[in-house]
Amino acid sequence: MYHIKKNTVQETLIIPLFGRKVCSEHFPDLFEDPEAERICSMLDYDFTEKGKKMESAVGLFGALEVAQRQYDLAWEVKDYLKEHPGAAVVNLGCGLDDTFRKCDNGVCKGYNIDMPDVIEVRNEILPAGEREINLGYDLNDERWMDEIDPSNGAVFFASGVFYYFKTDAVRELFQKMAKRFPSATIVFDTCNKRGAKMMTKTWLKEAGISDVNAFFSIEDKAEIEAWCSDFASVTARSYMRGYRDIYNEVRILHKMMIRFCDSLVKMQIIKVAFR
Ligand SMILES: C[S@@+](CC[C@H](N)C(=O)[O-])C[C@H]1O[C@@H](n2cnc3c(N)ncnc32)[C@H](O)[C@@H]1O
């Protein structure tokens, strides 16, 4: 059994992992994920409270969000690999997410990066396979970039990670990445300030974040376009409906919540292509 420390940023990896397990049970046609179940069973973590919350109608929507987000980002990775089959596939703030394996085409290379203590647990539960490496770094320490081989292209993705970063830190990170990895792409999920405020009661609480004002959230992709002249393009799609439309597969309450997330919380998947 592997232990995850409580009340840390690292603990936030539990919610998406558990959400994927719950979705796999409740919506097997949309999100079959036996691996999420296996990983949860290997952790020394009391899931009782999270389980109760996620089994409620509202909680279940949270599970749908994290499972759909993984689907969206995996879609983007597979799309990038069509043109660059041997690319580096880099999971930033990977937690215990196995997207690389879900996208592996047999020739690309996977890099899973998270804080060293998370990587210690990952090495036990999800040891790196062939053409895969787990790397323990704080993403704000740019030395992680030296580990990546971008010679056949690189696609970076971050799932539920930048909410824990100050806006300035995300801007600096992207500017450095654009210089270091020309022609690479990064995809990630975002929401607006209203969404971030709502998360202070759940996700961000564990990480000790209560005042979200300095933390990363965006209303419109144009805010990112203005960051750097090394960005070739910035595109955005709806998080819940932009990659496949699950609207007709869910109950009426969840339909309403999908509309709320699109219009008022601006939950989006953003893709930045570097020049
Ligand atoms: C909400 S979890 C998401 C985990 C995973 N991406 C998923 O979707 O299952 C956020 C993850 O980001 C990692 N993280 C946050 N800040 C980080 C940083 N500065 N450097 C490396 N990892 C970080 C946390 O340790 C945690 O694993």
UniProtKB/TrEMBL annotation:
InterPro entries (alphabetical): Ppm1/Ppm2/Tcmp, SAM-dependent_MTases_sf, TcmP-like
This protein's UniProt keywords: Methyltransferase, Transferase
Gene Ontology BP terms: methylation
UniProt-recorded Gene Ontology molecular function terms: methyltransferase activity
Organism: Butyrivibrio hungatei
Record flagged with keyword Glycosyltransferase: no
Protein name: Leucine carboxyl methyltransferase family protein
Highest taxon listed in the record's lineage: Bacteria
